[in-house]
Amino acid sequence: MKDGERFRCWDSCMFSAYTEMAGNHNPRPTKMPRVRQRFMHKLCFFEDRYGKMLCVGCGRCVEKCPVALDITMLIDDIQAVDLGQALATEGA
Amino acid sequence: MTSITIDHNCARAEVPLVPLICKVKEIVPQTSDVASIRITSLDDTKPFEAKPGQTAMLSVIPYGECMFAVSSQGADYLEFTVKRVGYVTEQLHALQAGDQVGLRGPYGNWFPYEELKGRDVLFVGGGIGMAPLRSLITYMLDRRSDYGRIDLVYSGSTRDDLVYYDDIIENWPKIDNMHVHLSVYKGTPDWAGEVCYTAPFLESLGIGSEGRVVVLCGGPSLFKTCLQSLVRLGFAESDIITTLEMKMKCGIGKCGRCNIGSKYICLDGPVFTMEELKELPGNVH
To answer: Does A40 reach chain B within 8 Å, measured CB to CB?
Structure first.
């Protein structure tokens, strides 16, 4: 190959095709695991691994969200959920 | 018996982002949609040494790249056994001997072949799950006296979907203290063996869990059902080893596709024991 073209495109972990594999298997097939991955990665998984949180608390995502999806409200909602109960239901 | 511990985060290629330009030495068809692709460097030497279970990124220029387990190795080549399921694998199957491909690796940790010395090992696999298992089986067969009894429980959809047919039918059953148990999911007139799903077949064989280590690799449903069967048969989760290399995408912990919780399959794995996996949030597959 002598020449080529640089192609870049947007992608997001919230898209169903993000984790879809050849052969159509998808480890995060529904919104639930994808949303969980997004917020847990930001606030928990990354911190577990690298010791820093991926949120600096600037509030821009709350201010600019076109559908008013407030991350702080989501965190409050998650805290209100009985985790043991939720995991037991998910495993069923 | 000491329990198996697996090294994690122990192997990184020295220059993981620069593909080494290699060429296809030979393509060996296995089934209608599986082929073994042998890769050698441009000066006909082996591109690198890979331990059993390690993986490498194979790129078909300019179509894309995918991570595959090194299924076996020769004196001057690395062999990747690939099933044709998507865009890149389609292109891989269309290659001819002499075509150039990019190769980077080796990535990932490896099967604990040192700790398995002296132990009895049960391999459970289905379909293309044979590819990573084969790297360890051939390693052990090359050092046969170091290991105990080897059992292979292997299934495919039909007789024509069994990968490495010559080895599993002809060569391996003849090896001392090696037992090969085969089943297919759908019988055909040319198949005289068992017609059974892998998990019930595995349970029917009466293989004891005493002192034995299991290496499991297969698709999501095989993985789930066989795991339940193995627990019923009395295997400890610390003695069940699996590889999750099919989840890997970038290989260097950047893309965020293969992770289960805070564990990245590409950085911490792909080889894990079930005991480690069950601690992680979310499903394995």
So the answer is: yes
